[in-house]
Amino acid sequence: LEAVAEKEPEVGAVFADHCRRRMVENLVRTSAILSAVKPDERPALVERFVTRTYEEGDRLIVQQEESEGLHLIASGEVAVVHVDTEGDDTTMIAKLGVGEVVGEVALVLRRPSSADVIAACPTVTLHLPRDRFLDLIKEHPAILAQLYELAVKRDEETSSIVAQEATEVLDYVLV
Fold first, then answer.
1. pLDDT tens, the chain, 175 aa long
2. 25 CB contacts (<8 Å, ≥6 apart)?
3. Are the beta carbons of 43 and 82 closer than 8 angstroms?
4. Rounded CA gap, 91 and 88, in Å?
5. Alpha-carbon dihedral of residues 29, 107, 66, 25, nearest 10 degrees?
6. pTM of the full predicted structure?
7. Helix runs in the chain, H state only
8. Helix axis angle, 141-174 relative to 130-139, nearest 10°?
């Protein structure tokens, strides 16, 4: 395919468009967040997102920075990692894959990110910038309700895991 695309760039463009369309169709059907919207409204909603690609090790979200927006994972996998305040210790919070969202905690709770989100392998996301997110939730408040519940749950899980890791480290040091 690469050789054909080099000789005939329009074939590469058509193939890339086809792949993106299939990826989006799958997300429209399977994403829990998008299920808050009527099925016939989902394709237009997804068109507001911008496709972003990441290589393994790239950061989608940086801990302690403001959210740039919401990422819907279209392909690949990400690791959610918390770095302690000294920067010495990292704690794996979760691995998330296709159909999952990241960035909702900082975006919805309006505070800096509580963890890094790092591509665990080549990853494609559909990114909804903050300003488009605000427009979207005005039109579809059910999405905000779902994202709020998810953000609170993940924030509590992150706090619990980080606290548990800190306790285990202290127990180890005290022994």
1. 678 777 877 877 777 777 777 877 777 777 888 888 888 888 888 888 999 999 999 999 999 999 899 999 999 999 999 988 776 788 899 999 999 999 999 999 999 998 999 999 999 999 999 999 989 999 999 999 999 999 999 999 988 887 777 665 545 554 4
2. none
3. no
4. 10
5. 10
6. 0.82
7. 2-7, 9-30, 42-46, 104-109, 130-139, 141-174
8. 130
Residue 30's φ and ψ, nearest 5 degrees, are -110, -15
Using alpha carbons, list the distances in angstroms from residue 95 to 4, 39, 48, 57, 174.
36, 28, 26, 13, 31
The whole-angstrom separation of Cα 75 and Cα 125 is 7
Q: Which helix (H) or strand (E) holds 127?
A: strand 123-129
* Cα dihedral 157, 162, 168, 170 sign: negative
Gap between the Cα atoms of 67 and 129, Å rounded? 9
